[in-house]
Amino acid sequence: MNRQFLLGVSILLGALLFCAFQERAESPIPNASRFISDVTSSEAKLAHAVSPMHRAEWGQAAGDRLAMLVQESNGRTTKFDQLDAAPSPPITDDAILSADFSVITGTIRRLNGINKGPLVPGGIVDVIREQTELGIPFTRLHDCGWPNPYVVDHHAVFPNPNADPALPTSYDFRLTDEYIDAVRRTGSEPIYRLGESIEHTGVKRHVHPPADMDRWAAVCCGIIRHYNEGWANGFHHNIRYWEIWNEPENRPAMWSGTDDDYLRLYRMAAQAIKKEFPDVKVGGPSLGASGSFVHGEFVPTDFANRFLAMCRRDAVPLSFFSWHCYTADPAELGMRCRAIRRLLDSNGFTETENHLNEWNFLPNNDWQPISKTGTPAARRHHYDEMAGAAGAAFIATAPMELQDAPVDVCNLFHGETGGFGIFTPDGVPLKVYEALRAFQGLTETPQRVKTHGAVSGKLAFVAGLSADGQKATMLLSNFTDTRTNFTVRWTGFTNASDTMAKIHIVDADRNFLSLQSVTVRAESDSMHLSLKAPAIALIRLGCSRR
Predict the structure, then answer these.
(1) Is the CA virtual torsion 538, 139, 105, 499 positive or negative?
(2) Which of 70, 304, 313, 336 has the CB geometry, 3.0–4.6 Å to 300, for a possible disulfide?
(3) Distances (CA, A) of 10 to 42, 50, 257
(4) pLDDT tens digits for 202-212?
(5) Which residues touch 5 (CB under 8 Å, ≥6 apart)?
(6) Distance of alpha carbon 422 from alpha carbon 430, whole angstroms
(7) Is the pLDDT of residue 157 over 80?
(8) What letter does residue 94 receive in the DSSP assignment?
(9) End-to-end C-alpha distance for the chain, whole angstroms
(10) Measuring CA to CA, how many Å separate 187 from each of 41, 118, 122, 131, 139?
């Protein structure tokens, strides 16, 4: 008797649901998101009344029906089975991300600078077009032409250290002229690192303290005079930023001298540069190790403290303070930016700019696989992870999370080919290149708006609006968040008309060129995305006529 009663109830409920479903499916759907939610909620309640095995079958059937659903209204059609932004499975709560385009909170900052220009060593490959597409604001000239630098470095530009810095014939600017011209052709502003590139070889040729520091400082002035004042058949590039050396605490790969040797070099060069060129910005020390966090408090290195004390005591120019960070946690970048800002302010350098001019993803915070003791397989795996979907999600997350950090310039290391880079040795863009391309898409709608739903270090979400209010962009980077289903909602954008949404997905299987389009009804202003970490989604919104 009980079995017959339950069977009858099940049949009756199924019939009622089928009729309701048919009635809604045959009429225009003003809010597709609410419709899907209503149907899946009803089917979920019935699914709980049957066995686990049949519940799974019921859920699959409901998903199949919803994937086939077609919304038709006034000749417009949206097929949900063509989107990754597909309806969520029953009984699964989406993570909610929201953007309010009526509330402008500032300007999206272009923190997508790089190291290295577009000319690849050897003269065969260049990535000028590809770097141009990224809208790079600053290109730091360090390790250019590595591992055998032939441009930028002092030894390349001033090959005879005993020559007279006052004579144009003492310099060889030719290849560096070509290199800087290529950087400028991408639309980027060069940051010139004075000094030498890193040397991992047993024999160090160039990373020694100059024998004559006055002469070395004079060479710095000769280089600036050539590129900013036209001296020695030069240019008027107006390069603003001049950095003195790189990682002098990284010994012996970057410096064979002592702390005092570098402090003396910086003092002499910075004072000479500012005396002859008062309008340029001079800085350093480009620290690889700036300090560490102990029980949540930042403790700067002795080198950092001594450098700042010297600059303060001797009134040595310090237009910008530069430092580096390689990490597996994007939140650490923001923490260090705030710590360095406090360090500068506490030492009286409130007007000194804060430059994070080398950063990148370091899987597991582990250098060993890519060190001299790493195995070929381990090295290849590490670099693949850095250049793949995980590295891409990290690189998209970082400049979004740094929007509110007290940092002025950021430069990814690096924007060229090979290890740490964004291209294969042949110049083919990697996933990490596509992350920068997605961020560039965000900056094309530069008015930053109010958003909600991001999780520091795991899930980044930033949205922007064009100046005329006709275009909007939302960038979502799921670095390590375990949730995979997201509802993206927005208000304050084209409420009187439908919205055309174009979605670019970057993950292990898809690249930036994978484009999905959907028309979202004005009454809806939301969509669902399936985005399993590590992955990126760039959503472009524009008006669509009714």
Answers:
(1) negative
(2) 304
(3) 13, 10, 84
(4) 999 999 999 99
(5) none
(6) 5
(7) yes
(8) P
(9) 56
(10) 52, 11, 23, 9, 10
CA angle 355, 401, 139 (to 5 degrees): 35
Let me know: does 132 contact 184? Beta carbons within 8 Å.
no
Distance CA 262, CA 208 (A): 10
In this structure, the number of other CB atoms found within 10 A of the CB of residue 509 comes to 9
Assess whether pLDDT exceeds 70 at residue 378.
yes
Omega before residue 237 within 30° of 0, cis = no
Sign for the CA dihedral angle at 354, 359, 362, 366 comes to negative
> Which of 292, 365, 280 has its CA nearest to residue 323?
292
Q: Copy the structure tokens of residue 430.
A: 């990697």
- Do the Cβ atoms of 142 and 115 come closer than 8 Å? yes
User: Hey, which bits of 455-534 come out as E strands?
Assistant: 459-465, 471-478, 485-491, 498-506, 515-520, 526-530
Q: Please tell me the pTM assigned to this model.
A: 0.83
Task: Give the containing element (helix H, strand E) for 454.
Answer: none
Whole-number Å distance between alpha carbons of 508 and 388: 7
Question: Of all residues in the chain, what percent are helix, strand and coil, respectively (each to 5)?
Answer: 35, 25, 40
